[in-house]
Specification:
It is a single chain. It is built from 15 helices and 18 strands. The longest helix is centred in the last third of the chain and has 21 residues. The chain has 4 domains: 90 residues, Uridine Diphospho-n-acetylenolpyruvylglucosamine Reductase, domain 2, CATH 3.30.43.10; 119 residues, Uridine Diphospho-n-acetylenolpyruvylglucosamine Reductase, domain 3 (2-Layer Sandwich); 110 residues, 2-Layer Sandwich (Alpha-Beta Plaits), CATH 3.30.70.2190; 99 residues, Alpha-Beta Plaits (2-Layer Sandwich), CATH 3.30.70. The protein is an alpha+beta fold. The strands form 4 sheets. The chain has a 7-stranded antiparallel beta sheet with strand order 15-12-14-13-17-18-16, with helices on both faces. The two termini are 19 Å apart. Helix 8 packs antiparallel against helix 10 and helix 13 packs antiparallel against helix 14. Strand 17 and strand 18 form a beta hairpin. It binds D-malate and zinc ion.
Length: 465
Amino acid sequence: MTDPAALAALSTLVDAGKVLTDPVSLQAYGTDWTRHYAPAPSAVVLPRTIEQVQAIVRWANRHQVALVPSGGRTGLSAAAVAAHGEVVVAFDQMNQILAFDAVDRTVVCQPGVITQQLQRCAEEHGLYYPVDFASSGSSQLGGNIGTNAGGIKVIRYGMTRNWVAGLKVVTGSGELLELNRGLMKNATGYDLRQLFIGAEGTLGFVVEATMRLERAPRNLTAMVLGTPDFDAIMPVLHAFQGQLDLTAFEFFSDKGLAHILARGDVPAPFATDCPFYALLEFEASTEDVANQALATFEHCVEQGWVLDGVMSQSETQLRNLWKLREYLSETISHFTPYKNDISVTVAKVPAFLREIDAVVAQHYPDFEVVWYGHIGDGNLHLNILKPGGMDKNEFFARCAQVNQWVFEIVQRFDGSISAEHGVGMTKRDYLHYSRSAEEIACMKAIKAVFDPNGIMNPGKIFAPE
Ligand code: MLT
Ligand code: ZN
């Protein structure tokens, strides 16, 4: 726990009342959406300016205090969990959009800007911020950058990394670096901006970001298609990709749909029960495009890949179809899911999923398994739900036993043990399944450059030494 005299010194560095030590704040700010670790920070500090962030980092170096960054706390890998007496640095006070440039189509944001705030700002200027996911109403941009957030539009627009034109960061030694300065072209050596994206706050704090915007999509239209088995989903993807530029291609299983329908506030897509469902989206910018989508649907039915389907005819229908997929995470969160977020290249998905499914069926016969994910970009979410009466720790321990088999398959397929949720604490012991010993050594050496005293989010990405 941080020494009281050091905490008193910390409170002189920020605005009055912005160091919190009450139990409710410690509990709230010390955790994210994972439930694996009990939050136990020493304090929460809320800076308002970049200078205050620098002062906090210098203070932490002087007193050897570990700092944990905190955004919207929607993370799924415990990267923003403070479980060991750290001081949480929360960016709620740095939540302003500072500038918009219509020529460059960029927006300068503070790290506490909510994802939806950025999306709305883009809309107000007739543009589009395309990184989107279910938690966009509460996740903060600094956290999105720290985890290189992905979501539901990656197939068309890529991850957060693609949209960061410039970053200001405060390193673990308190220096302010201005990285790339919004440039489109810049061939002046190492791109340090990219190192801070996805670093989970282990190198320093993102204190300002210049984000790129895109032209707004025209008449987004969704289809939900029911398939007779998992193997039919990939031919459906290929058929549609051959004809249309998809903005999303998601999937979920019948078990996932059953949980959504049990909520009572989302209509079923159609009457036919199917084991798997694909949700795809495209810009129906002309009538020809919509007709092409319908013709492709008919082709898929003729081939036996699709049993039933529906196409949105209005904004409301579009939103309702998306709820079938977007509400899944929150809906199953009440069952304390053990989450795996794995990926392979798209071509390997069918063989990969068959192997993983066999391991899961063999080792978790008594657990409910809910599959969903961003299958169009090779990212599958494997959620194992805790049976009602089982103790949480026993459940997580049993799930962890199977990780080895799941991750050996991931490794054999040259896949990733964390496609978009990050490493944090939940996946750090498995990093070697996706990154070589040489790569991990390079990553640690990079951390030592930016964070020589190891105060930045220790124990995340790498196990403590
Ligand atoms: C999603 O795709 O819904 C998010 O990654 C969250 C989750 O996997 O539960
Ligand atoms: Zn996801």
